[in-house]
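Attaching the record inline, Q. Sequence:
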Amino acid sequence: MNPDKKIILDELLQRVNSSPFVLVVEYTGMTVPQFSELRNRLAATGAECHVAKNTYMRKALAEAGLPDTGDKLVGQTAFVTGESDVAAAAKVLKTFEKEFQKPAIKLGILDGSILDENQVKAIADLPSREVMLATLLATINAPAAQLVRTINEPAASLARVIKAKFNPEG
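Structure, as predicted:
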């Protein structure tokens, strides 16, 4: 293999291995300013968008032990990888596609499974990681708060009775 091709393939493999997800989009018809804007929006979520030859990406995915994408890697495709939050990256892609009618989401790879366009868009509709963690924390704390209110109620009732008994005008 040509040493230059090996360097490109190794870089793609490193990106795929360091990311918990890969989202594939078709960027046909996008202008350079639109592509730059998409990259900026993705960067704000900790994700990156890269263009690579489809054959190189197929090899990188295979070497990483990820599933075969079949015939989906055709045309002008770009690959989105990120640090952690697939929902945020998917949300950026879905919003950008709605705004500019480009890029078209083709598929995603998450936890070793291939996701179709609709599944990626469903992930985009999920709340952010921070909102989900806050909801989880509230759910965990709810029983404890209820328990504290239940334990405190007899003492509070007794205090109200004593106050009424010894303070008749209040």
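The chain has two domains: 3-126, 127-170. Strands lie at 21-26, 47-51, 77-82, 104-110, 113-116.

More tomorrow.
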